Fold:
Amino acid sequence: MTTEGWIVVAILAAAVAAFAWGRLRPELIAMAVVLALGVSRLLSPAAAFAGFGDPNVLTITAVFVLSAGLERTGVAVRLARWLLRAAGGSEAALLVALMGLAGALSGIMNIFGAIAMLLPVTIAVSREAGVSPARLLMPLAIGGRLGGALTLIGKPSNLVANGLLIESGAPPLGFFSFFPVGAAMLVIGTAFMATVGRRLLPTGTAVPAQVPVRRRRGLAETYQLAERLYRIRIPEGSPLAGRPIAQTSLSAEFGVIVLALRRHHRWIQAPGPEERLAAGDALIVEARPHDVARLREGNGVEVNPETEASRASLESEDIGLAEVVLAPRSDLIGKSLRELEFRQRYGLTVAAIWREGRPRRTWLADLPLQYGDALLVQGPRERIRFLRQDPNYISLDEAPVLRESRAAVAVAAALVLIVLATSGALPLSLAALLAAGIVVVGGCVTTQEAFQSIDWPVVVVTGGLLPLGAVLQFTGVADAVAHAVVPLAGANPLAVLAIVVLLAVALGHVVTSVPNTIIMMPIALAAAAAVGAPPAPFAIAVASATSVTLLTPISHPVSLMVMGPGGYRFADYTRVGAPLAVLLTATMLAVIALRWPL
Structure:
């Protein structure tokens, strides 16, 4: 291999290591790759930045906007309600219906939008049916991921694979070229989850399966608030009397969260930081036992366990409890509530955080937020409604559907894209742009909402890393790897494809789908050429392999999205995902072998 080839290998190894490390944002890594390719003189500046002008980047952007149109008009929610009513109360029937619906929606819209819409619906239905959400949310995420392999626009990695295929001189893939593989994986995956997979799912502790229970009472019990609730009475002469809550040492020194205050037989739920304490007040607080013991000793207060955390002490007509989960594109990851000034920004108190299968209820202010966290918030209902509009959060309550009257326009836009892309009347990028224009001009989304709906990190990562795929080809690195793989498979095309798929699945557990596809596609195309096989099935296999990385929650944001609401632990994903990944990989290879004789 040439010197240039070894430079590319070094850049690639550094990028993969950075993705696996997980401490750097993917878009930062992508821009570092662009810089490295330019500084090393492997590419001219124009060529290094050429990926941002690639038609597939525009297509990805337009599909995000179309997805927002389908989301904001409530198309998916309508379908979900109808389908789940038809499924009845059976756990197996609900699981099949949810996986099928999530898969179908993910084939035509952004998977994040699809799962975000179905998440609160699934939780609501699970409560009505007396089924724990832990039995349904992981299948929901799996169905969505498998549905991304149904169509060319199902996920960005499909478009990336198609673009690199075209650059190699091969004919482009059709809109439904992925369908045989995607449909088979969705059917087999659903059948597995409805039979064997159900036995591997946790019974569920995140939300009690009970019917019918008031939603808010369920939240308090779910987060086990009573275990950490205390009633603190402030007597005459206490150093806390006469001081605003924010100026006391309750939070900073003792980790105490004040949820309510009783004064003169009147409840004040979610008192603000400016609320001035008075002698005789009784505070309902969350704290650890030894912290309240320290508080009792130094502040002259009376402390008793609050064994009867009545709904009146936590909620009122104006004050409520709500549950939100961090969105996959949230820019709050890694920041603490104190850094975010959460109380000042939203006017709400975070009463608990659900993480890795259990609630955290104390010392939350300095706890860095993670993907998969579910937050139990308390405060004015109007502020909760405001929080639901923040794209950093997904509400786990069924929110009112916006712009239902424009649903027909959003559906028409999706049909325009499908018809034009399938018939070849317009290039896919222009068809997607036209569909996005229809949902904006048709009033499904505002211009601001359209821009907010775009997953800009995915756009930057795609545009930044696309030139790396070209460099892997012209420097001979892809050929070198391919010629190392071919002898291992005895020059058998199906065996070579199997090795390529296994490499893609393994890499996909440490590298996100788009970088994985960009790295693996040149190798796959070189391997196909080395054994004289058509390139299209290799391209489809590499892109579809990104749907099979199911062993860990960190392999895809939607897996993390359901982690908190479902109360899942890391091991739950491995227990369910390992056998399913093996089954799906075998299914993929079998369908490709039958559909495209190699």
About this structure: Residues 257 and 268 are 14 Å apart (CA to CA). The chain has four domains: 3-44+457-595, 58-206+405-454, 215-314, 319-395.
